[in-house]
Structure formats: structure tokens, C-alpha cells
Amino acid sequence: MEIVIRAAVAFVVLWLVTRAAGRSTLGELSSFELILFVVLGDLVQQGITMEDRSLTGSLLAALTMIVLAVVLSYANMRWPRIGKLTLGRPIVLVRDGVIDRRALSGERIGLDELSMLARQAGIEEYSSIRLAILESSGKVSFFTKEAEAKP
């Protein structure tokens, strides 16, 4: 039973760490960050199973993590308020060509990164952006004024 409790605590801690890392960071991990998360997972596993090398301990820890992920996914679907808490809300970064610097700062997104994302979406100037929204997935959705004018 102790393995289940340790796995549940590790699940919550890992969830908090990934939320603290920020949406845009998780959307595009560098090679080093990916390796760091894999190593972190191995370190957490050892803490969960208390260096237990048995197949039962490993399977129990993995099963606990999977069950908690499924329960969280179901709770997000069933109760929208929980989804807003666990997944986060979309955040407006640009509205009518005006950049919300407070939102950028809060999500740790620089102007260079926002400019790069806008260019990748085929947008040359901020003034042509009607809305730029940072989705909970870490991707930025752009809506231009030209698209609004088309029937």
C-alpha cells in the first residue's frame, strides 16, 4: 500500500512541476529537457518503489500512475471547473494588434518567440493580429483582421 501512496504523491508532484514549467515550454522540449524529464522519471520511480526491484512493485507504481492519469482525464471531461484548474485556461497574448506584456511575462514568453510564432503563421505585423491566444496545449492560435473581413 505504501507504493500506491508514494506513486500518488509523485504523480501530484510531477503534475505540479509540469504546470510550473509553463505551457510553451512543454509544447516544444529541447533534447536536453526531454532527457531531463526521462531521468527525472527514473529518479521518481526509485523513490516510489524505495529501490524495490521487484516486478510487482514496479507494476504497482506504474498502474497507480496510469489509473491517476485516467481519473484526472475523466474528471477534466466530466467537471469543466476541474479541467480549468488542471489544464489551465487559454490566455490572450495579443488583442487588436496590442501585445499584452503582462500575459507574455506571466507565461515566460519573449517578444522574439512571439514574433517567430507569428512569422511561422504568415503574419508580418502585430497590427494585423486580431487575436493571439496561448492554448492550454502550449500552441498559439492566431486570428487576423483579414480573416475576419472575409465572408
UniProtKB/TrEMBL annotation:
Record-linked InterPro entries: DUF421 (IPR007353), UPF0702_alpha/beta_dom_sf (IPR023090)
Domain of life: Bacteria
Subcellular location: Cell membrane
Residue ranges of domain YetF C-terminal in the record: 78-147
Entry membrane topology: Multi-pass membrane protein
Gene Ontology cellular component annotations, sorted alphabetically: plasma membrane
Pfam families from the UniProt entry: DUF421
Membrane-crossing segments per the record: 55-75
Keywords for this protein: Cell membrane, Membrane, Transmembrane, Transmembrane helix
Database matches in Gene3D superfamilies: bsu07140 like domains
Keyword Secreted belongs to the record: no
Family: Belongs to the UPF0702 family.
Name of protein: DUF421 domain-containing protein
